[in-house]
Amino acid sequence: MTEKAVQVIEKQNKLVFIVDIKSYKSGIKSAVESAFGAPVTAVQTLIDQDGKKRAFVKFRNAGAAGNIAIKLGII
Q1: What is the longest distance spanned by two Cα atoms in the chain?
Q2: Which residues, other chains included, contact 51 with Cβ-Cβ below 8 Å and sequence gap of 6+?
Q3: What is the pLDDT at residue 8?
Q4: Which of 11, 21, 30, 38 has the largest CB neighbor count within 10 A?
Q5: Which ranges of the chain would DSSP assign to H, the alpha helix?
Q6: What's the whole-model pTM score?
Q7: Which regions of the chain are under pLDDT 70?
């Protein structure tokens, strides 16, 4: 967890996950919704310089990303 990822949680209500390179946005969305029980608004993906795929998941409910991060022990 980087400082930038923590700022994204606090300011944009998003969580950052490293996912399989072959995964699709719709699959990521359904997996996150079923795992955490929180509705997802949008999923953005990127492949970083190390070849890892990152998914930026935006939640519909305000503060949901922070609550999930606390449950996971990230914050």
Answers
A1: 32
A2: 21
A3: 86
A4: 38
A5: 3-12, 25-36, 64-72
A6: 0.87
A7: 1
Q: Which two tokens stand for residue 14?
A: 């998003």
Q: What is the DSSP letter of 8?
A: H
Burial of 28 (0-12, 13-18, 19+ CB in 10 A): buried
pLDDT of residue 42: 95
Tell me how many helices (H) and strands (E) the chain has: 3, 3
Point out which residues pair with 1 in neighbouring strands: none
Residue (of 3, 55, 60, 21) closest to 37 by Cα position: 60
Q: Are 25 and 54 in contact (CB under 8 A)?
A: no
Contact 19/31 with Cβ under 8 angstroms?
A: no
